[in-house]
Amino acid sequence: MTALLALVLAPLFSGSVKWLKARLTHRQGLSPLMEYRNLFKLWRKVWIAPHPTTPLFLLGPILALLGTLGALALLPILPGPTFKGDFLLALYLLGLGRFVQMLAALDAGSSFGAQGSYREGVVTVLAEPGTLMALAGAVLLGEGFSLSGLPELGVENSLVLLLALASLALGLLAEGARMPVDDPTTHLELTMIHEAQILDHSGPLLALYELAGSLKMLFYAGLMALLLPGFKPLVFLGVGAAWVLALAYLETYGVKLRYLRLPDFLSYNTLFGVLALLGAIWRF
Amino acid sequence: MSPLWTFLPLVLALLSVGTPWRFRGLSLFLGMAGLAWGVLGGMGWASGLGAPYLYLLLLGALTLGLAPYLPAYLAHHPREAHLYGFLLPLFLASMAGVALASPGLGFLFLWEGMALLGYFLIALEGPNALAGARAFFLASRLSGAGLYLAFLGHGHVGADWVWAGLLLGFGVKAALFPFHAWLPQAHPVAISPVSALLSGAMTKLGLLGLYQSQYWFGPPPPWVGWVLLLLGLLGAVYALVRGLGEEDLKGALAYSSVENLGLMLAALGAYFLKPMPLLLGAFFLHQVAHALFKGLLFLGAGALEERRISHLGGLFRKAPGLGALALWGMGVGAGLPPGPVFLAEWQLYQGFLQGPFLMPLAAGALALVGALALYFYVRLYGLAFLGLPRGEVALHWTQGMRLSLGVLAGLLLLLALVPGLVLDPLGVPTYPNWLLLILLGVLAGVFYRGLLRMPMRAYGTWDCGFQPLTPRMQPNGLGFAEPALRLFPFLRLQVGEHPRLEEPLAEVYPGVGRIYARLAAWVQTLQSGSLHLYLLLQLLTLVVVLGVVLL
Question: I need a labelling partner for B412 at 20 to 30 A (CA). Which of A64, A240, B223, B538 fits?
Answer without folding.
Answer: A64
